[in-house]
Amino acid sequence: MNNIFETFKPNNPLIAKYVDYYYLDIKSQNTVTEFECFPHYYTTISLYKSNISPQKGEVIYDDNANFLEIFTPIRDTILKVKQMGKVHRIVIVFKPLGIQQFYKDLNFTDFIKNYSFFSSVELSALFETQNTSTLTTLLDAYLSTKFIAYKNPLLEESVLLILKNAGTVPIEQIALEVGASRRHVNRLFNTHFGISVKTFNKIVLFRKTLEKKLFKNPKQSFTELAYEFNYSDQSHLNKVFQNLTSNSPRKFLKDGTLLGNEDTFWHLKK
């Protein structure tokens, strides 16, 4: 069987408000696959059919293993992933504060591996099909049963401001517009996301720049991108990419692979 990598969107409007997309990743003949994932303001739950994860970023096929569920938080560093043996994985990609609508009393600022996000019955049904329409229906339904609205107006407004302005809003302006102190706003970001407002801004700026280059205008120059997204100059753009990807913008794009129809852009190493 050939490898499968497909992205697909939620159909349920409620779920789509908090989940950007799902993806299916199958490598039935895999020996070793290594790739690098780069910082994003989205978070994920990865569901593996029969694997173990002895350490962060390492996933090993084990025919006798139970289902493996891994939550990956917002990060400002590269995540290196090594998949050894067969892979059958389903991933949920959450928008900011998305996962908080379905799961409570968990620390979403760090990786989580010892929690059952789905029941064994739900996981068994998910891994019985490779049809993305069926998977969409199942994932939408399972998440719907777990939905309990989480409200944090100040944090929600702050996030929206940053996204609307592509990561260029200083904390002073955010604090002024939401009517809170800088310290309080920063505390909210650290408590819920594990990163500061400044870092969240930087990741959003990087991702919005990348989105424009990948999907809207691939021929646009980096100088033009720097101007459009309010970098101080192209050197600033280069510095942001270097800090978050360890690559210049040009090399980062040249070495990357876009998987599916969403913004899953990885460096495939092996």
Structure, described:
This protein is α+β, with helices and mostly antiparallel strands and about 270 residues long. The chain has 2 domains: about 140 residues, Sandwich (Jelly Rolls); about 90 residues, Homeodomain-like (Arc Repressor Mutant, subunit A), CATH 1.10.10.60. About 40% of the residues lie in helices and about 20% in strands. The chain contains 10 helices and 11 strands. A 6-stranded mixed β-sheet has the order 5-6-8-3-11-10. Strand 10 and strand 11 form a beta hairpin. Helix 4 packs across helix 5 and helix 5 crosses helix 6. It is globular and about 55 Å long. The two termini are about 20 Å apart.
Helix-strand layout with pairing:
Layout: E1 4-8, H1 13-16, E2 19-27, E3 32-37, E4 43-48, E5 51-52, E6 58-61, E7 68-72, E8 79-84, E9 87-94, H2 120-126, H3 132-146, H4 153-164, H5 171-178, H6 182-193, H7 197-216, H8 222-228, H9 234-245, H10 249-255, E10 257-259, E11 264-268
Parallel strand pairs: 6-8
Antiparallel strand pairs: 1-2, 2-9, 3-8, 3-11, 4-7, 4-9, 5-6, 10-11
Helix pairs in contact: 4-5, 5-6
Can you tag this structure with a few keywords?
11 strands, 270 residues, 6-stranded mixed sheet, alpha+beta, Arc Repressor Mutant, subunit A, 10 helices, 39% helix, single chain, 5-stranded antiparallel sheet, 2 domains, Jelly Rolls, globular
Average predicted local confidence, pLDDT: 96
* CATH topology annotation of the largest domain: Jelly Rolls
How many beta strands in the DSSP annotation? 11
Rough outline: globular
Note the main sheet: 6 strands, mixed
For the CA atoms, what is the radius of gyration? 19 Å
- How do the strands line up in the largest sheet? 5-6-8-3-11-10
Number of domains: 2
CATH class of the largest domain: Mainly Beta
- Helix and strand succession? EHEEEEEEEEHHHHHHHHHEE
Number of helices: 10
Low-confidence stretches: none
What is the percent of helical residues?
A: 25-40%
Structural class: alpha+beta
* Second-tier CATH architecture of the largest domain: Sandwich
What amount of the residues lies in strands? 15-25%
Report the end-to-end length measured between terminal Cα atoms.
Answer: 19 Å
